[in-house]
Amino acid sequence: MSDFLLLASDPDALQNLSIFDPASPSAEAIRSLSLLVAAIAAFIFLIVEGVLLYSVARFRVAAPAGQSSLPGGEPPQVYGSQAIEIAWTAAPALVVFVLVLVVIRTLWQVNRPNPTPSANDRALYVTVIGHQWWWEYVYESYDGRNLGIVAANELHIPAGSEGAARPVYLTLKSADVCHSFWVPRLAGKTDLIPGHTNELWFQTDKPGLYLGQCAEYCGTQHANMLLRVVVDEPAEFERWLAHEARPAAPPADGDTAASAAQAVFLGQSCIKCHRVRGTPADGTFGPDLTHLMGRKTLAAGMVPNDAERLREWLVDPQRVKPGCLMPAFGLEPRDIDSLVDYLATLH
Amino acid sequence: MTSVELEAAAPTAASHPAPSLVYDLVTTVDHKKIGLMYIVMAVVFLVIGGCEALAMRWQLLFPRYDLIGPDAFNQLFTMHGTTMVFFMGMPILIGIGNYMVPLAIGARDMAFPRLNAFGFWATLLGGLLVYSSYATGGAPAIGWFAYSPLTERTFARSAATDLWALGLIVSGTGTLAGAVNFIATILGMRAPGMNLRKVPFFAWTMLWTSVLILFAIPPLTAALVMLLFDRNLGAHFFDTQNGGSALLWQHMFWFFGHPEVYILVLPAFGMVSEVIPVFSRKVLFGYEFMAAATAAIAFISLGVWAHHMFTVGMSRTADLFFVASSLLVSIPTGIKFFNWLATMYGGRISFKAPMLFAFGFLSMFLIGGLTGIMLAAAPFDFQLSDSYFVIGHFHWVLIGGTLFGTFAGLYYWYPKATGRMFSERLARWHFWLLYIGFFLTFGPMHISGFLGMPRRIYTYDADRGWAFWNQLTTLGAFIQAPSYAIFVYNVVVSLRKGRPAGSDPWDAWTLEWMTSSPPPSYNFEQIPEVRSRRPLWDLKHPDDPDWQYE
Question: Fewer beta carbons under 10 A from the terminal one: N or C of chain B?
Answer without folding.
Answer: N
